[in-house]
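Justification of resources, computational component.

The compute hours requested in this renewal are based largely on the per-chain cost of generating structure records like the one below. Each record pairs the submitted sequence with a full structure-token output. That output is archived, and it is also reused by downstream analysis tasks.
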Amino acid sequence: MAKNKYFEDWIKTLSKQSKASYRSGWSILTEYYRDVKKEEITPDILLERLIEDRKKPLEKQGAIEKELNAWLKWLEHDYIKRVRGANGGKTGVKGVSASSIKLYIYSVKSFFSFYGYPLSKKVKLPRHIKMNNGKIENIKIEYRPEQVKKLLDVIRSPRDKALVLLMFQSGMDISTALSLNYGHIQEGLEGGNEPLMIHVNRPKVGLNYRTFVGHDAVEALKLYMNQRKVKYKEEIGYDTPLFVSDGTHINKRKRIVPKNFQDNMREYVLLAGLVTEERLKRSDLSPARPHALRAGFSTIARLKGLNEKLIDYFMGHSDSYGGAYNIVTNDELKEKYIEIEPGLSVSSVSNLGDIEVKMKEELELRDHMIRGMKEEILDLKQGAKIFNEVFKEMAEIPELKETLAKHFGK
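The structure output for this chain reads:
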């Protein structure tokens, strides 16, 4: 299968064991187009077609789903299995297993969803095959402010803290977040705007939209940019990448790619206790993948009662809102974001947590002092008892009896 940019960018985000399986699914799909439909196609071309399909009126959409349904039937009945190995020939046995069909369609769905174009329910598996969204271990972490706080507590990198908060409070996908330049936030950041509006361009999706980040992300971005200016003496301009690789050598501080952050996230969630090492090893799709932060934003926005189409707009989804929010003013969008910002606030959780920790420390100190005082009282009582016994014995000594009588009486 020919390599293409968007497919390769997506495949880099997968775990090592998933890459081979997902490539296999896409290889069989391109084989279907070549042998059955007599057409050379790549994942990127199919993504382009899906994007064009979504621009049509709703009732006319679904061409890609229709083609995929035909592929699924071909997989079940007509695909000829091959001998394992790179040069394996055909076995003559037709049809693949139910588990393989689920894996292959999941690989296709995952690729499209990664770029904000989930397939509709028009894609139907054969009736005897039940679709399961992967293993239980693959289910994304459900991020709320409490979980994000735990994550931030173990992250030492100002860059990664800023990136976590930006994704969680804006709903951006990792690719879009890492495509940002300083110019996207410069005016608002230096002007002290909160919430901070960001004009976002997603070329692949064909959308220009606006979203926001709250106080926590703004403060984290200020700290990160200040570190680069002061510590690394970096000259930051309008076109400077917003998130760059760590290191003291300026020439080596280049824009990071999704895999860099994905690898870091696996370590962070383990340290924060948000997922076990066993679960990470057993998962095909990391439950700690950055997309979980984006999903956290959408869930909180829904719980806060934000309009579904406005949520799609803030997240840069395909234009399901008919361009309606493109004519809404910045202030009107800002008011809507302010409605959900409290649900995205991590600093409020952090402050409460700090107070709880301080109170706990003070209570432990008080209990320690009380225990110490109790021990001292017991020691004094024991000492007094021993003194009285010694005094009585001394009082019976003839040579001391007269002297003691003079000082203490009879």
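Residues 347-395 form the longest helix (49 residues). The two ends are 112 Å apart (CA to CA).
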